[in-house]
Amino acid sequence: MRILTALAVLVSAAVHLYLWLDFARDDDVLGPSFMLNAVGGAVIAVLLLVWQHWVPAFLAVGFGLSTLLAFVLATTVGLFGVTANWTGWAVWVAAVSEVVAVLAGARLLAADNPLRSRLDP
Prior knowledge:
By secondary structure, the chain is mainly α. It is built from four helices and no strands. The longest helix has 23 residues, at 54-76.
C-alpha cells in the first residue's frame, strides 16, 4: 500500500512538473505553485518509502486532497484568476492519481492509526 500511495503522489508530482515545463513556469502564480507541487510530491513519495510512520500517509492524503480541490476550484469558480477545464491527458492522469493518493493514504492511516492506543491488544 505504501508503494501504491508513493506512486500515486509521484505521478501527480510528475504531471505538475511536466505542466510547469510546458506552460506554467511563465505564470507568476501557477509557476511557483506547480513547482511546489512537483517538489512536495516527490518528497512525500520518498518519505512514504523510507519512513514507516503515519506522517507520510497523512501528508499523501493532504497532498491529494489539496491538489484535487485546487483543480476543482479552478474548473468551477476559478482560482487566483485561473480557469481550467477537464480536458487533456494530464488533467485526467493527475486527477486519478490524486484520488488514488487520498484513498491509499487513508488506508495506510487506518492501518497505522496514530490515535489508537498502543496498549490495545
